[in-house]
Amino acid sequence: MNICVFLSAADLDDRYTQPAREFAELLGRGGHTLVWGGSESGLMKVVADGVQASGGRLVGVSVDFLAAKARANADEMVIARDLAERKALLLEKADAIVIMVGGTGTLDEATEILELKKHGKHDKPVVLLNTAGFYDGLRQQFQRMEDEGFLPIPLTDLVFFAKDGVGALAHLEEWSGLQ
């Protein structure tokens, strides 16, 4: 399965890097392909290293102004013109999406993917990997949106919140078995 992972390119502490490394190793050992932003820095590098070292493939989609930070030894690397094209290519190349910890760029990617799913533009599973409770506040906000009528579909049909990588991958594999 081609699994797109949206996540930070920042250098983060062990509370985030260790779960990311464990998830990456699960992906690689499972024979999955990582589809990611292509960066050779921060958490993006940690995940790419883990997937590659565990036998998985790497498909990167960088963007023109970040091309100098793109991973040289990816199995495939595409350079998009801008961030909008990058998001479209990442979604196109993916069978499923996992959103890990990140900043405004990750949040932008997450909300666009969820908006597209809400409007039926894709039916790929979306998992929010809630490492160390990072997305507890966002989950609460999404629940409020559902409770108050802002979501036209049930939250559970839009996104799955996983506490760890094992739960995230199990959800994706269950979904792919239903296809």
Question: Which descriptors would you attach to this protein?
Answer:
seven-stranded parallel sheet, 7 strands
Report on this structure.
With 179 residues, the chain is α/β, with parallel strands linked by helices. 47% of the residues lie in helices and 18% in strands. It contains seven helices and seven strands; from the N terminus they run βαβαββαβαβααβα. Strands 4-3-2-1-5-6-7 form a seven-stranded parallel β-sheet, sandwiched between helices. Strand 2, helix 2 and strand 3 (57-63) form a beta-alpha-beta unit. Helix 1 (14-29) runs parallel beside helix 2. The longest helix is centred in the first third of the chain and has 16 residues, at 14-29. The radius of gyration is 15 Å and the shape is globular.
Fraction of helical residues: 40-55%
- Overall pLDDT: 94
Q: Percent of residues in beta strands?
A: 15-25%
- How would you describe the shape? globular
Low-confidence runs of at least 5 consecutive residues: none
* Rg, Cα atoms, Å: 15 Å
Can I get a quick summary?
It contains seven helices and seven strands. It is of the alpha/beta class and 179 residues long. Helix 2 (42-53) links the parallel strand 2 (33-36) and strand 3.
List the helices and strands and how they pair.
Blueprint: E1 2-6, H1 14-29, E2 33-36, H2 42-53, E3 57-63, E4 76-80, H3 83-93, E5 96-99, H4 104-118, E6 126-129, H5 136-147, H6 155-158, E7 160-162, H7 165-178
Parallel strand pairs: 1-2, 1-5, 2-3, 3-4, 5-6, 6-7
